[in-house]
Amino acid sequence: MQTNLTLSIDEYTLRAARKIALDRHTSVNSMVRDYLNQLVSTADERKQALEGLRALFDEKPFRMGEKNWTRDDLHER
């Protein structure tokens, strides 16, 4: 089910968005919908990746070696 959304934007932005939509053979509505879908999808992917990392760290404990370097060592030329 799709729900309508009302946005308030300035006239210049709307006019520019309409030109871009025309060049892309689409509509401003479609561009906004695609952008929001991509935004949600990216957020979901990040959440899943973070959950995966947490699960990996929980199931496979690791040990880091001793820090035997200094910041100056890393930036020495």
Sequence stretches where pLDDT stays below 50 over 5 or more residues: none
Q: What form results from the Cα inertia axes? A: elongated
H/E series? HHH
Q: Quick check: average pLDDT?
A: 91
Number of strands: 0
Strand content range: under 5%
Number of helices: 3
Nearest-angstrom radius of gyration?
A: 24 Å
Largest β sheet strand count, sense and barrel closure? none
Structural class: mainly alpha
- Percentage of residues in helical conformation: 55-70%
Distance between the terminal alpha carbons, to the nearest Å?
A: 61 Å
What would the keywords be for this entry?
77 residues; mainly alpha; elongated
Structure commentary:
This protein is mainly α and 77 residues long. The protein has a domain at 30-62. 64% of the residues lie in helices and 0% in strands. The chain is built from three helices and no strands. The mean pLDDT is 91.
Brief digest:
With 77 residues, the protein is mainly α. The protein is built from 3 helices and no strands.
Strand and helix layout:
Elements: H1 11-23, H2 28-59, H3 71-74
